[in-house]
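In practice, a research group might receive sequence data for several interacting partners and want a quick structural hypothesis before committing to experiments. The following worked case mirrors that situation: the sequences arrive first, and a predicted assembly follows.
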Amino acid sequence: MRRSGRTALSVLCSSAVLLTATACGGGGDSASGGDDNTITWWHNSNNEPGKGYYEQVAADFEEAHPGVEVEVVAMAHEDMVDKLEAAFQSGDVPDVYMERGGGELADHVEAGMVRDLSEDAAEEIDQIGGSVAGWQVEDKTYALPFSVGVVGFWYNTELFQQAGITAPPTTMEELASTIETLKGAGITPISLGAGDKWPAAHYWYYTAVRSCSEDVLTDAVTSLDFSDPCFVQAGEELQTLIDTEPFNPGFLTTPAQEGATSASGLLATGQVAMELTGHWEPGVMQGLTEDGQGLGDKTGWFPFPAVDGGEGDPEAQLGGGDAWAVSQEAPDAAVDLVKYLLSDEVQTGFAENDMGLPTIPAAGGAVSDPALAQLLEVRDAAPYVQLYFDTAFGASVGGAMNDAIALMFAGEATPQDIVDQTQQAADQEQ
Amino acid sequence: MTSQGAVTAADPGAAVTRRASARRVTGRTPGGTGRPGRDRGRKRLEILFFVAPALALMAVFVVYPVFSAARMSFYRWKGFGPMVDFVGLQNYARVLADDVFTDAVVHNFVIVFASILVQLPLGLALALLLNRRIRGRGLLRTIIFVPYVLAEVIAGVVWFQLLQPRSGLLETMLTSVGVPVPEQGFLGTPDLALATVFVVLTWKYLGLAVLLFLAGLQGVPDELSEAAQLDGASWWQTQRRIAIPLLAPTIRTWVFLSMIGSLQLFDMVWILTGGGPANATTTMATYLVSQGTQRSNFGIAGAASVVLFLIGFALAVAYQFLVLRRDTKDA
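A structural hypothesis for the assembly, expressed as tokens:
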């Protein structure tokens, strides 16, 4: 009797371990740390020159605001994301921190954790212009984007030349013939990190941006209604591209940007001709090559081609970025710090140090890299920059959407399936 | 309101302490006659004292998370703020209706059965072989056991590189001897991915089976085999009639460990395929991680973890009563 009781207990204990995987702390609501004169600021520029630059910025701010102390915490990006998540769970959010916008921000706003900056920073919001849309919830601005980039094709100019391609494609048909030419020259046209799903999803996002009008997209973000036929058309456009089989072998499990065999690694080492990805690509490629140069002066960039017969603006771009937000509990001086971070002066320094793509027009000229300068030009010429759908819709709907798109790349989903599964996830959210 | 509640809540506790101390006092007065009882009480206190740290750790890191996950499964919760949106069993309904999850359960059971069907005979054969006096036995044992000692993530990354399409060592070797390789590589082809993951798992965990079986074989008395040999039994007969039956308790324990391990399978899949391609290798654990930490659907992840727990628990209890019972019955 005793014995069997004990074995049952041991079974309970050993299988209890099964459950611990997701379990984490419940919600708390302790106040933000520090007093009214200390501002905690978390950022992810933990390498030089960015780290040193931000320390200087904090020191300058302290000098201009006597009595205020800025506690700067520089972290690696992944660490910062994890710590922020924990901070939101515990309710102890740093005074100034980074928001990626979209559904995630909307959740934070709904939980009453982010400060409305619409009034206090009206001037800065005005200067930033259209890019700020991704950080607005119900017409109120909760964070100021300091770096916004757009997704496009990064390509190897040498391999394009080698295949005899003189100009990058501007329409989907031209893209298809470019792919054909590259294949004919024995070059793998495109690398794709579909193992991480979002790189694959970017293709659908773009065909959707090209197929759907701005109104339909703006509406879908708030109403979560995907019944417009343009969303199916986006999938059909994508299917046509997938059918040309342009991707590196094994792309379904290829990671996006980790290691030399990742999609970015393949482009950086000259094994493929191009890759559709964000503005961070040059930096990623530099980290993946031994000489630290990436593709060097062979780096080229062109925007996503136009879709024939699509309702979307061919000049519209898909992108995203980072914004400074102020937590609800933060002292007023934190708002001043964020405004200072978006000043012409700090944004110009930010651009000069190659830390990102500044959002304040006055700083645009300070971007020195030619490929990035071209990207910036395209971004500023765009009628609007559509925030990455997975960010815009939030992790839950965005995740389901990315899953369905990845299935299409594996040949296991139709254009209609993508719409259906996204709609289903969206309905469950409401 | 709150302070009043606190007082009434504290009251019964205070009463209990008072009653307990009273009992201790009365226990002390009767002198010699109370001694056995007092010793027993003291012993209990001692046990409690020494076990307390372990219990506290278990409460904080096992019991609390278990209950917290179970509680989470009844709410729609995004990972921050208070848990207020009670949805009843809706999360469970969603998990069980989700093809990705039911497929994940199937994948887990495929691994459970494949492990037993493949690793058991293979491990047993190797253990019986390595139990004989053969040249280089120590080296062979080490070779088989090393993968098990290797950290799972490191082994995963190494295999991921070996399995790279075209450029990976494995495909280079296969193509050089004329064996056709799949277009999208072994991990990139949905139909092959789970089998490939299983091969890597077998490479990794065979060492544990062999080690356990070898240890079990040490417990088989030499006299029995000697007596059998004197009676003219062949090596094979000695193994089949003596070694394997006496090894049965070890085998049953290994099967139990293997089963639990297969149900909780996460690391290797996460590194090799991340659950893809096209959800061909998702397991219950990768499902709950992707729902929880990646999509912030903590309620759904909580429900999935409770389902995983119940499946594991049911299997463990059934196995205890049906199979392991005979090992513990007269122990």
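Before designing any experiment, note the following. The first helix of chain B runs from residue 2 to 28. Chain B touches chain A through 69 residues (CB under 8 Å).
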